[in-house]
Design a protein that fits this description.
The chain has about 325 residues and is mainly alpha-helical. It has one domain: ABC transporter involved in vitamin B12 uptake, BtuC (Orthogonal Bundle), CATH 1.10.3470. About 70% of the residues lie in helices and about 5% in strands. Strands 1-2 form a two-stranded antiparallel ribbon. A hairpin with a 2-residue loop joins strand 1 and strand 2. Helix 3 packs across helix 8.
Length: about 325
């Protein structure tokens, strides 16, 4: 029971962090049709910006300033780079964001070095939130979960209950009509791209000190973000939320299960020796294959439901 409860809480917290990352990418894709390969790089920039701001003025100002800085960079990139290739189709968009990811990686290594930086959880959030079955659940994990839930509610309210959200949704389906009503559609797209980058930066501020802030952090989560977006349904925020929780929980549980198929069959009375066909595969522990599980989930989803959990079929 202890393993189940603690793993469930850790899985939910990790899943909510994945949602913070995937929400911006989903928003950008649903609005602009752009699959931003540099999205994880904005996550990395958020962590490094937060580290530098924290060194100067503390963590709480960094929680606000770092996402704003990342969002501003994202908006400038859309205005002066991405917009120029948008008319040429999806391949140039993919290539330019792919190139941006390498530029960001090199710049991070030039400014902050090639090793990890000492970006720590703030002292006021470093204790336990509660103790369950003798195991302490970190206060900072609870803080991560709270920030992700607040972000989800804020996004939902903005898109469904405000004039800005109505204009954004209208620009998605009827851009010519929105422009005829006097709204600057390119500026709306720039704001959406900058907002998506800011959400990734916020995830970097929250996740950078919970895990490790180093130049390889973008590559670590980059592929998982796309898994979440595809499994949830391209362009669906609700789908991304459900997929994030599913993948985060499944992977967290798998990491804690130190059992192989060989041991399970042995407990049932069936012995598999080293000379059995595929023995190297059967002896793998669940914890060893945990990093592969999201991609297995992705393959199965593409086979049986290509539009994702909450995706809509395009006619």
């Amino acid at each position: 029971m202890e393993f189940f409860t603690i793993s469930l809480l850790n899985g939910i917290s990790y899943g909510l962090l994945l949602f913070m990352l995937s929400a911006g990418l989903t928003l950008i894709f649903s609005m602009m049709g752009v699959l931003n390969f540099a999205h994880a790089s904005f996550y990395m920039l958020g962590a490094y910006f937060a580290y530098s701001v924290t060194e100067l003025v503390g963590f709480w100002p960094a929680l606000l300033l770092a996402p704003l800085g990342v969002g501003a960079l994202g908006a400038l990139f859309e205005r002066y780079c991405l917009r120029r290739v948008h008319a040429f189709g999806h391949v140039p968009e993919l290539l330019i964001t792919f190139g941006l990811s390498f530029i960001v990686l090199e710049m991070v290594q030039l400014v902050w070095g090639t090793s990890s930086v000492d970006y720590r959880v703030p002292a006021e959030l470093s204790g336990p939130l509660f103790t369950l079955y003798g195991t302490q659940f970190p206060l900072y994990r609870g803080f991560m979960m709270a920030v992700a839930i607040v972000m989800l509610l804020a996004l939902w309210l903005m898109l469904t209950r405000t004039r800005i959200g109505l204009v954004i949704q209208a620009a998605l389906t009827h851009p010519e009509t929105v422009e005829a009503l006097g709204h600057n559609v390119p500026r709306i797209f720039m704001g959406v791209f900058g907002g998506g980058a800011a959400l990734a930066g916020l995830a970097g501020v929250i996740g950078g000190n919970a895990f490790v802030t180093e130049p390889g952090m973008a590559a670590t989560v980059g592929s998982v973000i796309f898994v979440v977006v595809v499994v949830g349904g391209m362009g669906s925020l609700a789908g991304a939320f459900i997929a994030s929780l599913l993948i985060g929980t499944i992977q967290t549980f798998a990491v804690g299960i130190d059992t192989s198929l060989v041991s399970v069959l042995s407990a049932l009375g069936w012995q598999i020796g080293p000379d059995a066909p595929g023995y190297a595969l059967w002896k793998l522990k669940v914890s060893q294959v945990a990093p592969v599980l999201p991609y297995v989930f992705l393959v199965l989803m593409l086979i049986f439901r290509p539009k994702g959990l909450l995706g809509t079929r395009e006619e």
